[in-house]
From TrEMBL:
Its EC number is 4.1.99.22. GTP binds at R41, R95, T130, K192, R295, A296, R297. Monomer and homodimer. SMART domains: Elp3 (SM00729). The keyword 4Fe-4S applies. Pfam families: Mob_synth_C (PF06463), Radical_SAM (PF04055). This is GTP 3',8-cyclase. [4Fe-4S] cluster 1 binds at C48, C52, C55.
Length: 365
């Protein structure tokens, strides 16, 4: 593969003044498609101890790659401040992600700070984290004690050789499986296990994963391989659709649909008819769900993105560091959200959508 570096620190900002509206507490906030802001995903680092081939191919994310220096990253206080303002605007759910979020030093301190936040109605947030699981055994107890509610662990194969090949690491699959059990043991449950399926590469792992996680209490979720970023050489022919996955699984273990928990839920939920538990499919490619998308994403250095496939972010860090008040910050985030029209997955492949996009390892899943 040719080396195309789409540098995190080179991600362009939206040009000009940050949008602003005079937002008042209690006022409804929706984007141009009437979608509220409910979910904030915060990427706390662009670094990772894996080099999953579909996310951080080693040819690109090598020793020369310009990862962000620590001074560029928002501090825990700055992250918490933006989160508090976003919660005032309607955010009910916060997910920490990365890169690998457990690599960020003292991440449990950030969890403890975010766990103090309450919605305007006085409810605690749904506070979760997505991880590759390698450090979970070490961190699960501290995360739980700090107030984390649940974790999602990524695992693409049970076969040890294939796992090491896909994650391009020396970490064994048993370490991740042990991390999942450690999370469940301390009550970060149910654990969701995310498997990205690449046709011809790991689709033969679907049934072993199904058999392994049935009756475990963990919720296995199958993710269609997506064209995030600009470095993984994505090709539609490598996408196994959610429908095809469900057909394979249902042929051996009959399934029935489960009602979504809430509007905007990403995974389509299914349960085994024999009572062995629940699974999910995330069909961003074959069956886009932009119509209900209520997610904003913040990068490690405080840029706000309105879509996983965005190519530009809104720089909140300058505002945060230049002494702007919380009311100003709220007005700017509200102004940014009000102008949002993103629906990339619905228009994938059409004119104007084949531009460079932010990397998944920078903005998180
Ligand atoms: N490092 C953590 C992890 O792997 O769980 C958190 C960040 S990772 C970017 C978040 C999620 O994005 C993971 O579940 C990963 O499998 C998923 N992901 C990354 N690249 C993807 C792609 N091209 N298509 C679908 N999912 C992808
Ligand atoms: Fe790291 Fe997660 Fe990307 Fe894999 S998917 S390279 S674990 S950030
Ligand atoms: Fe939301 Fe963008 Fe994904 Fe559509 S493509 S669901 S707008 S993040």
């Amino acid at each position: 593969m040719s080396k195309v570096i789409f540098m995190a620190k080179g991600v362009p900002d939206v040009q000009g003044e940050l949008p602003y509206v005079d937002w008042q507490p209690g006022q409804a906030l929706v984007d141009t498609r009437q979608r509220p802001l409910r979910d904030l995903r915060i990427s706390v680092t662009d670094r990772c101890n894996f080099r999953c081939t579909y996310c951080m191919p080693r040819e690109v994310f090598d020793t020369d790659y310009p990862f962000m220096p620590h001074s560029s990253l928002l501090s825990f206080e700055e992250i918490t401040r933006v989160a508090r303002v976003a919660v005032g605007l309607g955010v009910q759910k916060i997910r920490l992600t990365g890169g690998e979020p457990l690599l960020r030093k003292d991440i449990e301190k950030l969890v403890a700070m975010l766990a103090q936040l309450k919605t305007p109605e006085g409810k605690p947030l749904e506070l979760t984290l997505t991880t590759n699981g390698t450090l979970l055994r070490k961190k699960a107890r501290a995360l739980k004690d700090a107030g984390l509610k649940r974790v999602t662990v990524s695992l693409d194969a049970l076969d040890p050789t294939l796992f090491e090949r896909m994650s391009d690491s020396q970490v064994s699959v048993d370490t991740v499986l042990d991390g999942i059990e450690a999370a469940a043991d301390v009550g970060l449950a149910p654990v969701k296990v995310n498997m990205v399926v690449r046709k011809g590469l790991n689709d033969d792992q679907i049934m072993p994963m199904v058999r392994h996680f049935r009756h475990s209490g963990h919720i296995l979720r199958f993710i269609e391989y997506m064209d995030v970023g600009s470095t993984n050489g994505w090709d539609l022919s490598e996408v196994l659709t959610g429908r095809e996955m469900l057909d394979r699984i249902g042929a051996e273990f009959p399934l029935a649909p489960v009602q979504a928990d809430y509007v905007g839920e990403v995974a389509e939920r299914w349960r085994y008819l024999d009572g062995a538990g629940e699974i999910g499919v995330i069909t961003s490619v074959s069956h886009p769900f932009c119509g209900d998308c209520s997610r904003a994403r913040m990068s490690p250095e405080g840029k706000l993105f309105l879509c996983l496939f965005a190519d530009q972010g809104y720089d909140l860090r300058t505002l945060v560091r230049s002494g702007g008040s919380d009311a100003e910050l709220a007005g700017h985030i509200a102004g940014i959200w009000t102008g949002r029209a993103d629906r990339y997955s619905e228009v994938r492949g059409k004119a104007g959508t084949t531009r460079a996009k932010i990397e998944m390892s920078y903005i998180g899943g």
